[in-house]
Design brief:
This protein is α+β, with helices and mostly antiparallel strands and 319 residues long. It folds into two domains: 3-137, PurM-like, N-terminal domain (60s Ribosomal Protein L30, Chain: A, 2-Layer Sandwich), CATH 3.30.1330; 152-308, Phosphoribosyl-aminoimidazole Synthetase, Chain A, domain 2. The protein is built from eleven helices and 13 strands. The chain is globular, with a radius of gyration of 20 Å. This is Thiamine-monophosphate kinase. Residues 148-295 form the PurM-like C-terminal domain.
């Protein structure tokens, strides 16, 4: 099988077909229609074997995760996912692997109503790069730069489960059977909070998704907004699986800097806070206030109640 046979068989005709896609896979470029009154949001994410995933990982889960982590970036900006491009580097063509990877990719793209519209394939060490595009009403994109002193800091869902799932896969931590399914699902099959992100367009002052751990990601908002923050570690939302499986110190460590949660981290001004619960209640995702924005530019303080909390770990960094 050659490159173009590979593209035709696994990536040309499967998945959702959007009416705003004029030209898709198979040409020199895609032709796409952005709606009047909307801005285009573009994000890129690369996953490399032995850095972001194990080479023997289930390829179906890998296809799912590649789409979900890119769509999560769009969700953090309040955007509707629309189109995907894939750059696929393979050491060799293994059709069984490709079939499962493509199935996971297409079913997840269908779930988020976005279409694969192009990309590239090449030979080399296993690496996956996706460019995701989305649309947001003009001027309504939520960025990292809008946090103001006094804003409340929120996160969706629970933190630390994916990191615990990684420890289970690596054989570094024992977990009871009743919790294994939950943490492995969170690690292999993350969910992007797309609908909730769109609901926050007129409420959140800033937002991002948590990919490298809360302690590593929140400082991005602080730098872009020129503010500081404090977090109460006693308020970090943790699942029962995490609480049952770890000593408190490890649970806090995983929740703060475990990474790959893909939950939304966002700030809300006090005058919009009262409507938040009503606004988000239809989405069935718990939202927890964990701290506030301060005027100490760039400084992240950790507390346990009223007491300082000393912590050295940071989020994941490539370099």
């Amino acid at each position: 099988m050659g490159e173009f046979d590979l593209i035709a068989k696994y990536f040309s005709n499967a998945g959702v077909k959007r009416t705003d896609t004029c030209v898709s896979v198979g040409d020199d470029g895609a032709v796409l229609q952005v709606r009047d009154g909307y801005d285009l949001v573009v994000t890129t994410d690369t996953m490399v074997a032995n850095t972001h995933f194990f080479p023997d990982v289930d390829p179906r889960s890998l296809g799912h995760k590649l789409v979900a982590v890119n769509v999560s970036d769009l969700a953090a900006m309040g955007a509707e996912p629309t189109w995907l491009s894939l750059a696929l580097t393979l050491p060799a063509i293994e059709e069984a692997w490709l079939a499962e990877f493509a199935a996971g990719l297409h079913e997840t793209a269908d779930y988020y109503n976005c279409q694969l519209v192009g990309g590239d394939t090449t030979r080399g060490p296993l690496s996956l790069t996706m460019i995701a595009k989305g649309q947001v009403p003009r001027g309504k994109a939520i960025t990292r730069s809008g946090a103001k002193v006094g804003d409340y800091i929120y996160v969706t869902g629970t933190l630390g489960d994916a990191a615990l799932g990684l420890k289970l896969v690596q054989g570094q931590h024992e977990i009871s059977k009743k919790h294994q399914g939950h943490v492995l699902q969170r690690f292999h099959y993350p969910a992007a909070r797309v609908a909730l992100g769109q609901a926050l367009r007129n409420t959140a002052s800033s937002a991002m998704d948590i990919s490298d751990g809360l302690a590593g990601d929140l400082p991005h908002i602080l730098r872009r907004s020129g503010v500081g923050a404090y977090i109460d570690v006693n308020k970090l939302p943790m699942s029962q699986a995490l609480r049952d499986s770890c000593e408190p110190a490890l649970a806090i460590q995983l929740a703060l800097s475990g990474g790959e949660d893909y939950e939304l981290l966002f700030t809300v001004p006090e005058n919009r806070r009262g409507s938040l619960d009503v606004l988000l209640s239809p989405y069935g995702v718990p939202v927890t206030c964990i701290g506030r924005i301060t005027g100490l530019a760039g400084k992240l303080e950790l507390k346990a109640g009223e007491q300082p909390f000393f912590y050295q770990h940071q989020g994941f960094q490539h370099f």
